[in-house]
Each structure stands twice: as C-alpha cells, then as structure tokens.
Design goal:
Elements (H helix, E strand, L loop, with lengths): L1 H12 L8 H40 L1 H31 L16
Length: 109
Amino acid sequence: MASATRSTHGPASGPPPASKSPFEQQRAALVGEIATALENVLQNMNKLNRSLEGIIAVGDEFGSVEALWSQFEGVMAREGEGLGNQAEEEEVKGGGEEEETMRPDEKVR
C-alpha cells in the first residue's frame, strides 16, 4: 500500500525543497515569475477588451446621428448643384457680362 500512495503523488509534488539543486530552485523561481507575468498580461488584456467594447458601444450610439447628417449633407449637395447650374444659366442668358448694381443711396458720377 505504501508504494501505491507514493505513485499517486507523482513528479508534481517533487522532492522536499532542501534536496533541490540550485538549477531546479532557479527554474522554479523563474517559472513562478513567468506565471505571475502571464497572469498580469491576461488581466491587462481583459481590461483592454472591456475598454474597447465600451468605445465600440459609444460609437454605435452615434450611428443614427451619422446617418442623419449624411442625409442632410446629401440634400444640401443636391441643392448646391442645382443653385450652381442656375447661376451658370443666368450668366449665359445675360451674355456673361457682369452688371453693376447701384444702391439707392449712391449717386451717379
């Protein structure tokens, strides 16, 4: 029975700390540091992921506003093109010459 108990512990439990070689001690310390560093990386990645999700959620809230402004821009662009065409037509009708207009308070020279 004693042999069955020893085999269940396996190499994970390892020998007592006093019998570890300096290499094994240093390796264990480095493995511990790496595990801690990877845990910190994982925590920071989770924080970053939550922040990015929040940013995306805020951006999604502005989707309807952006669509409304795009529609407004489209309407204004079409009206601007129409006004530009009208001005060109008036220029052609008037011979392309600019007329001087006088204000009522101006005197003829």
